[in-house]
Design a protein that fits this description.
Radius of gyration: 18 Å
Strand content: 15-25%
Bound molecules: nicotinamide-adenine-dinucleotide
Distance between the termini: 43 Å
Largest sheet: 7 strands, parallel
CATH class: Alpha Beta
CATH architecture: 3-Layer(aba) Sandwich
Order of helices and strands: EHEHEHEHEHEHE
CATH superfamily: NAD(P)-binding Rossmann-like Domain
Number of strands: 7
Oligomer: single chain
Strand order of the largest sheet: 3-2-1-4-5-6-7
Helix content: 25-40%
Length: 253
């Protein structure tokens, strides 16, 4: 039996990058998947490749009515068990150079989109007898970097609201956890498509993450194998968050 046999999932931002990889892996593991994104051509192409197990819908996660359409599309595939709140944007600028418009844009997609997503699936998941919500935060929801004020704020918020939702929804059989990738080789993590591994050579796992590294973690979190975890942080960052390697201390390299 496959790990997501009979389950129905909504994955946002699944036209490319990690979301696409998750959609492919979830289908491989027996799920039927709603792919939601604003990149219609790419999203439709992924759904076409996956055949009957997937459907693409245009959805902007900032809009409540788009969430209603996503839930309705999931209903056509079966009863909804899984939501991966994956879609997000980033914005690189110093605090001084981040305009209110820039800030609000990132917050409205990453933070408000995740909030709307969680709220939209509560009733359908209750009707299914339970479910799993995977909220994609980031290593920047555990620590921070200069130049990422709006993004880090949104990702810390996701980590916080995950815990609130876990506390409120556990007794309905709905588990809610946050996923914290480190650097991942996608259009977001490697916008110039360069030889990115060199930037990670001094990390404990000396390479950039691949979408499949994160998708496998999302699969575990979404599956019944993760049955006793809720309100937790699942980190897949090659050891970035563990600390800093000091070359001149014993064991340094
Ligand atoms: N790539 C990294 O290094 C990295 C690191 C840590 C966390 N993350 C997180 O992982 C998740 C996936 O990122 P990725 O690396 O695959 O990025 P990506 O840019 O390749 O994919 C993001 C997807 O989200 C979609 N999207 C953006 N705004 C949307 C909106 N308003 N409504 C619907 N869809 C929208 C995009 O069209 C795109 O398909 C994000 O939450 C990101 O913050 C990425």
């Amino acid at each position: 039996m496959a790990r997501l046999d009979g389950k129905v999932a909504i994955i946002t931002g699944a036209a490319r990058g990690q979301g696409e990889c998750e959609a492919r892996l979830f289908v491989e593991e027996g799920a039927r998947v709603v792919i939601g994104d604003v990149l219609d051509e790419e999203g439709q192409a992924v759904a076409d490749e996956l055949g009957d197990a997937a459907v693409y819908i245009h959805m902007d996660i900032r809009h409540e009515q788009d969430w209603q359409r996503a839930v309705a599309a999931a209903g056509q595939l079966g009863s909804l068990n899984i939501l991966v709140n994956n879609a997000a944007v980033t914005h690189f600028a110093s605090l001084s150079d981040t305009t209110l418009e820039d800030y609000n844009r990132v917050i409205s997609i990453n933070q408000v989109g995740t909030f709307l997503g969680m709220r939209s699936v509560i009733e359908p998941m209750k009707a299914s007898g339970g479910g799993a919500i995977v909220n994609v935060s980031s290593i920047d929801g555990l620590q921070a970097k200069n130049g990422l004020v709006a993004y880090a704020a949104s990702k810390w918020a996701i980590r916080g609201m995950t815990k609130v939702a876990a506390l409120e929804l556990g007794h309905f059989g709905i588990r809610v956890n946050s996923l914290h990738p480190g650097g991942v080789d996608t259009p977001m993590g490697n916008p110039t498509n360069s030889d990115i591994d060199q930037f990670y050579k001094d990390y404990p796992i000396p390479r950039c993450g691949k979408p499949i590294d994160i998708a496998r973690m999302a699969l575990f979190m979404a599956s019944d194998e993760c049955s006793y975890s809720t309100g937790c942080e699942f980190v897949a960052d090659g050891g970035w968050h563990a600390g800093q390697i000091i070359k001149w201390l014993p064991g340094g390299h």
